[in-house]
Structures are given as structure tokens and as C-alpha cells.
Amino acid sequence: MEQKKVEEMLINMGPQHPSTHGVFRVLIESDGETVARTESHIGYLHRCFEKIAENMTYLQIHPYTDRLDYLAAMLMNFGYAVAIEKLLDIQVPERASYIRVIVAELQRVASHLVAVGTYGLDVGAITPFLYTFRDREKVLKFFERVCGQRLNYNYIRIGGVAYDMPQEMAADISDFVVYMRPKIKELNDLLTYNGIFIRRTANIGVIPPEMAVQYGCSGPVLRGSGVKRDLRRDTPYSIYNRFDFDIPVGKGEVGHVGDCWDRYIVRMREMEESLKIVEQAVKSLPAGDYIDAKAKKPLRPKGEVYHAVESARGELGFHVIANGKNVPYRLKVRSPSFSNICILDAISPGHLLADLVAIIGSLDIVMGEVDR
For residue 89, is it within any domain? Predict the structure, then answer.
């Protein structure tokens, strides 16, 4: 006999709620403290990026890409730039390629620090948030030195980068790598293997690998389910094939493969791998030009292209149709946060309301790229 629901009620989480990680609303049908069903609603931060881009020149579009995933703006610049370069067959100078990889991987570290710190807040741990923002500040100082900005950079441009990297900055970045490695261990001691944190995240929000693939998940969400998929390794772009780094995946160390803890630990270990890449790139940083001269001329490409890069949240792809004018005919973004958040309604039922907060946090969404 089916058990009767005793305390059925509808609860709104968001759209202005810190635990939704942005302007995001979840309509929850609960049975007491248990989630019976959720209905996710997006569209509260619609920026019309794709339609605006169809009315801007190819160079004017760049600052708008910053506003997609504003916590990983360098990677947004990177994704758009490589797509247009592929369309125009532009060859990026060696020095620019190395600078791009350095700032992209530093951005990945900075983004994951926000993800880890705010996730601690989601489950009740305040101190890790202070630690992660302390270390993120050091990365932002590098970005401020190289381009003058701390959040929306407009630094990686079509054909290279906007400004050359100061020569003395390479040594400072190497010092940061040495500084940061023990800080990751410090975070692991403080949060990762904390018994309360494990109880809040292990066996919660399990995403089986086949379900992750079916929903189009990517990035740490997909790798947290044990699927070893990373565009930097599988479909190498830029100069990533020159570097030695591993692809961390969830292994169910404290619970089921694909639970909240696995998605969290993948981000922690990815920071270590990003530091490896940065260290190698800084040692090999060549002299030369920082932007291709061809990219400084008016751009009037013709053709169609799709190119994706591995952003902090997964596969970021730009599909561009060009008709020979100085503005794109059509531009479409494949944003990882959109695909990742779509799985929420499938994995939430049966969990407690407090677990729903942990599940949303483990997906690490940024609404700027969802409501693009």
C-alpha cells in the first residue's frame, strides 16, 4: 500500500537566495523534510548575449563574453577567440599561446577556489571560505597587473592577448605555484576530510555516469561521475598537448561514484593539475609577439564554425555563422552550466531539503552563462 504524504507543501527556493548560486528559482514539492519533486526555473538574468553579438563587430563582442561566466572570464575570452581564429585561420604567436594557457589555468584555480569556498558555506563551514578568498586574491592581483581588471578582463583577444605579460611576472607566478600547493593540502585537512562535511556530501545527489552523459553534463560534474572527459586532452586546442597533467575523476572514495563529494574532490584535484600546467608554461615561456598582426585589421570572415574549450565548468562552445560582414550572422553558445543544472530535477527527489542545497552547490553553476 502506498504511503500517504503527511506534510505535502510547495516551497520556493530563490530566485534571490544565496544557496541557489545566482538568480535561479527552484519550486520544491516536499513531503515534510523530504523532497518529492523539484521544478527548476531559469531566465531571471537573461542577458540576450547571443542576439547582442549579432549586432556587434567581432572585436566588440569580446567584452560581452566576460559577462557569461564572470567567475572564469579569461576562459570565456579564450573560448570565443579560438572559435573566430579557427574561422579566419589565424595563427597565434607562440608567446601569446603560452600566456593564454598561464592565465587560463590561473583562472581555473581562482574559479575553483570560489566553488570550494562557497560550497563550504552551503553546508555550514565558514572558515574555508575565508581561506579560499585569501588565495584567490593573489590570482586576481596577477590579472590586475597584466590587464588592469579583477573580474571582467577582455584580455585574451582574437589573435593573441591584449597586452604582453611583464617579464618579472613569470617569476612571481612561479612563486605563487610554490605557495599554493600546501594551501590545497590545508584545505583538504580543514574541509575535504572533515567528518561532518563527508556526512553532508557523501552519497548525496548521485549522478550515474550514463545519466551524466545523457544530460550533456561536462567538466567536474561529468568527471565527478567517473567519466574521464576533458577537452584539453581529448580534443587538444591551443598548446595543451605540450603539457603533462592528469584528469582527476570521481572514484567513490567516501560514498557512491558521482555524489556531491566526488564532484567537490575533482575540483580540488584539478587545482593541483592546473598548477602543474602553469609551472610548465612559465618555464617554457618564449619571447616574441603577443598578438598576430592579421587580427588587428577589420575582420570579415565567411563560413561556419563550432569550437569548444574546457572551461572551469565544462564544455564551452561557440557556434558562429559568418557571411562576410563585420558582424556575425548567427552566434550560439554551448554553456556547461546550462546542461549541468538541467540534471537537478532528476537527482533531487528522495533527498532532504538541506541536501538540495548541497546538490545545487556541487553543480557549481553561474547564471550568467545559463541565462545568456
Answer: yes
How many Cβ atoms are within 10 Å of 346's Cβ, its own excluded?
A: 12
18, with CB counted inside 10 A (0-12, 13-18, 19+), is: exposed
Count of domains for the chain: 1
Record the cell numbers describing residue 160, joined without a space: 593573441
Start-to-end Cα distance in the chain: 46
Q: Which CATH number is 110's domain given?
A: 1.10.645.10
Question: Measured between alpha carbons, how far is 27 from 10 in angstroms, rounded to an integer?
Answer: 7
Which residues does 67 contact at the CB level (< 8 Å), separation at least 6?
47, 49, 73, 152, 368
Instruction: Find residue 179's DSSP bridge partners.
Output: none
Q: Which domain holds residue 116?
A: 49-343
Q: What is the pTM of this model?
A: 0.95
Three cell numbers written together for 339: 546542461
Structure confidence by residue, pLDDT tens digits, 201-236: 999 999 999 999 999 999 999 999 999 999 999 999
Provide the β-strand partners of residue 314: 311
- For residue 43, being part of any structural domain is answered with no
